[in-house]
Design a protein that fits this description.
80% of the residues lie in helices and 0% in strands. The chain is built from seven helices and no strands. The radius of gyration is 26 Å and the shape is rod-shaped. It has a single domain (22-182), classed as de novo design (two linked rop proteins), CATH 1.20.1440.20. It has helices at 2-66, 71-85, 90-112, 115-118, 121-156, 160-164, 179-182. It is an all-alpha fold and 189 residues long.
Length: 189
């Protein structure tokens, strides 16, 4: 009888050990998968921001040919690009994004004063590429924020919350922009 009781206790311990191990491994793998999803989504945001950053010098050069006296706007754009390029965190990137948006909107206001620039084919092409890139950035930012939402929810909900801290997973930052940057500048051509 004592032997059977010992076997039952040993069986229960083994059962809970196996269940605990399977739960740990599945939670760890799920968290790693979600973390990689966030990293991949951020990479796409970064790629689109770089694409936009690469287009801006061409746009500035085209405008500079028509509006050479607007040096402050050109300097603001260069400074904002440099800040974005040097960003190390999501919040620093978002701040650089806001600065660049502001500088670009001022550049587009400058363009209003130059009708011959508005009809320049290079400017029109660059403006279309920039608009397309802005759409890509918005999509990539949305995908990134969705991935962050799923990841953050997983590390906060049971049973993921039991394992996340011990595995070194912490909440990730959303790529948010302030309310003023949410409205596109209104420019009539």
């Amino acid at each position: 009888m004592k032997k059977y009781l010992l076997l039952i206790v040993l069986g229960v311990i083994i059962f809970f050990g196996v269940v605990g191990t399977v739960t740990y491994v599945s939670q760890r793998n799920a968290l790693i998968g979600l973390d990689e999803e966030v990293n991949g989504a951020w990479s796409e945001v970064d790629n689109q921001l770089q694409r936009r950053s690469d287009l801006i010098p061409n746009l500035v050069a085209t405008v500079r040919g028509f509006a050479a006296q607007e040096q402050q706007v050109f300097a603001d754009i260069a400074n904002a690009r440099a800040r974005m390029a040097g960003a190390g965190t999501v919040s620093e990137t978002a701040e650089g994004y806001r600065e660049l948006e502001s500088a670009l909107s001022r550049l587009l206001v400058v363009v209003e004063a130059y009708p011959e620039l508005r009809s320049n084919q290079n400017f029109i092409r660059l403006q279309d590429e920039l608009a397309g890139t802005e759409n890509r950035i918005a999509v990539a930012r949305g995908r990134y924020n969705d991935a962050v939402r799923r990841f953050n929810a997983r590390i906060r909900m049971f049973p993921g919350s039991l394992f996340a801290g011990g595995l070194g997973f912490t909440a990730r930052e959303y790529f948010e922009i302030d309310e003023a940057a949410r409205t596109a500048p209104r420019v009539e051509f």
